[in-house]
Amino acid sequence: MTDEQFEFLLAIDEYKRKNARPFPTWTEVLEVIKALGYRKVAEPQSLGQSRKDSKCDKERLKIPKEQKQHQPIK
To answer: From start to end of the chain, where are the E strands?
Structure first.
């Protein structure tokens, strides 16, 4: 598991605990992703591509350097 995946897992877990939501909706998951600092910065690409082969992981969703540290979810 990468550091990025682990940070996401912790953020989702924190959201679920604070909001008593064992199964957050996709809208709530997107809220957590945005709270982590991710923003769309490139055009969408096909989901059929292998995630390991695709460079879109780092290009499409980036955490600004000033927001890389874990920030509490409201």
So the answer is: 39-40, 61-62
